[in-house]
Amino acid sequence: MEFPSKLIEDAVNEVAKLPGIGRKTALRLVLHLVKEKEDKTTALTEALQRLRTNIRFCATCHTISDESECTICRNPRRDHSIVCVVEESKDVMAIENTSQYTGIYHVLGGIISPIQGIGPAELTVDSLMTRISSGSKEIREVILALSPTMEGDTTAFYLHRRLKDFPIKITSIARGIPTGGDLEYADEITLGRSITARVLFS
Amino acid sequence: MEFPSKLIEDAVNEVAKLPGIGRKTALRLVLHLVKEKEDKTTALTEALQRLRTNIRFCATCHTISDESECTICRNPRRDHSIVCVVEESKDVMAIENTSQYTGIYHVLGGIISPIQGIGPAELTVDSLMTRISSGSKEIREVILALSPTMEGDTTAFYLHRRLKDFPIKITSIARGIPTGGDLEYADEITLGRSITARVLFS
Asked: Which chain A residues in 37-76 lie under 8 Å from chain B, judged by CB atoms?
């Protein structure tokens, strides 16, 4: 697509670098901004720039945070004896939105993936070990809440090996048929596991 | 959805104001920027801000332009005797991409819509009349390239009434079955018109 304006072209090129946004969508968004008042664009660019410049990561759990320690780690009403290990900050948000968890978190910052060259050293595994071995705050349980993929399982096995000699309970999120899911359309591994890992009806 | 960070929340709120972008997509885009290096975000925000601050509209045809006159109006090799009237700058880009048109344009900046309170005074109709009545550049033909909707037809009829006393040819883009379209799925008005407005086979 050709553009009559270099300014439009530059803006489209930048917007189209965002994930899931093609050049047609980028053009639509850019033309929308041109049509709106200038302060709308300024509000957008300032919010993005402010975010990127000022964002920090919690020194304890490594989740995205405005301060040096996140609101979850700072909250004395949370259960600091349970640590839920997740891949990314967005997983923390997803679990927080369920309102089912009152413990604290540990964000690995990725997942072990030999293909992408990501090993334990690229993740916050050492920080997790330090949190558990330093007895300042007694941790009783570690929940491994990783994606049920090859990489997620690899990471979970690795963490289990590192953690198994500590006097803590190591658990994993339940796998099975999702609520609202149809047995007919569930894949064989999920359905098979949901039968072998059946639970008492309550 | 709750966010652990005010910075994230502000950025998501701004991004979600863009058309077709919901809060989930906004969060995905924002977290992508946080993961990337800061200069990526700076490149994006600067391109958008530079666009919005510096963008101008061609003094002649009102299309989006980097200069006071657009590259199309300035081009002496274009046919300045044919003016194609369109609703928005994006229509100019769409027609330019066909490489089938060598004339110049006139961007109305909208379409007559009594429901939205947009009348001829809100559009660049007077500027079009000035272009045609000032004999400095002889205009021989005006092509009405408006959307085949109620508003588009209303605007076309209005412009035809204003233009019909000038010694110019007034044409309209062809309507019919789109290339690759299936007769079976064409709506009745389109199919009916494509029969009454049939053309010699060539």
From this structure: 38, 40-55, 63-66, 70-72
